[in-house]
Amino acid sequence: EAQVTQNPRYLITVTGKKLTVTCSQNMNHEYMSWYRQDPGLGLRQIYYSMNVEVTDKGDVPEGYKVSRKEKRNFPLILESPSPNQTSLYFCASSIAGPRANVLTFGAGSRLTVL
Amino acid sequence: GENVEQHPSTLSVQEGDSAVIKCTYSDSASNYFPWYKQELGKRPQLIIDIRSNVGEKKDQRIAVTLNKTAKHFSLHITETQPEDSAVYFCAASKRGSGNTGKLIFGQGTTLQVKP
Description:
The complex is a heterodimer. By secondary structure, chain A is mostly beta strands. Chain A has strands at residues 4-7, 10-13, 19-25, 31-38, 42-51, 54-57, 65-66, 76-78, 87-94, 104-105, 109-113. In chain B, the strands form two sheets. In chain B, strands 2, 4, 5, 9, 10 and 11 form a six-stranded mixed sheet that branches. A five-stranded antiparallel sheet of chain B has the order 1-3-8-7-6, with no helix packed on it. The relative contact order of chain B is 0.34. Chains A and B meet through strand 4 and strand 5 of A and strand 5 of B.
């Protein structure tokens, strides 16, 4: 089954404790991205990647890092989480070309930073 | 940068009535406008999209209209059913050269359909 898989789905952590949210897709998609969803703000892009070793900042990249060492994986790293990073995070992927804007989302990862 | 405004933030209708959600965008270069439905606790899923060379698109009970001049686009749901209850997001994007696959989302509309 074609899918985007995120882990963990739920995480409660404390300020400053490094964490990684993994994202993997099995559709051979070139494009991957991370969004955060907050009430009243919709979904905002954090980082995106157009292919292996090609990453760039989205609209709200502060406090986050990403890497794209393999085509299928795009982990989101919070080096020193803070309470304002409490949010619902979605990984998404899409195929390069005319349908690059047609996103397939993962199930979401709800992060709470105390 | 590009901005998408979505209204209303909440919408309550009786089953069988129609629902309309409106969005405006700021970047005249945007040319692709998808709508996503997010059921409670689930991921956003694409339900319909429209490209800038088309003024209207329908798929059974849902339709989307686009007014490029006014930079408005709207989602219309007819004969609403309880299973239409969800959060709906509009988005804007640019297709073509330099396309990074990025979507700019509206703030979301919580639709409640009362039986």
